[in-house]
Target: Triosephosphate isomerase
Amino acid sequence: MRRRIVAGNWKMNGSRALVQQLLPPVSSELASLDNGVGVVVIPPALYVASVLEKAGAGLEVGVQNIACQDAGAFTGEISASMASDTGCRYALVGHSERRQLFGETDDQIAAKVSQAVSHGLTAILCVGETLAQREAGAAEHVVAGQVQAGLAKVAAGQWQNIVVAYEPVWAIGTGKTATAGDAQAMHAAIRQELKKLGAPADELSLLYGGSVKADNAAALFAQPDIDGGLIGGASLKADEFLSICRAMPGEC
Model:
């Protein structure tokens, strides 16, 4: 059975006060959830230690970015081994903001995925098309290429540490959301692409991201190939984030 996951990406938001305000109610409420969802918080690196201190038994923690290298003279970078050493379980890789704003290439993203899984982290590979690419009818082609490139270095025994998050670029932080049907179609296409790569595609979790909120989460999570969500702004509000977690269907 694929794991259902709701991961909150804080992006460059947060403070010690937010950690103190947000984590206790989220952690305490997780114990009451009976739908089997795994909940992950991915704060800015400066707050990882604070989040780990406040995280209850049911809450996992990740980092928003890792280096292509394991160690060395790379000022400002954080390695996968460091993230693992602190207690993190997940690492975001290839988020569209990293691709677009910081010029991350397919080769760099593949190297980061390799670093993550080699150090026992679960890499959440982010993929997604722009509005122009979707309107040109190239959405599936673009996403397939990102999946192929990003996972090119994954070895046969490492697939259990791979999650793919589909985030259409045009829906991130815009208030626009892909319809449940459109999101499902892309997730199904991603699963087929994973099969072509030799991955155990039916066992890997696929997440949807892009303005997921409490009022649309249930429809998205009800789709057969959507196993959870990568949540942005809504993850900064305890009530909203918990409502999204509760929207996950219970285990069969």
In short: The beta strands are 5-9, 38-42, 59-63, 90-93, 122-127, 162-166, 206-209, 228-231. The longest helix spans residues 180-196. The chain is about 40% helix and 15% strand. The chain has one domain: 5-246.
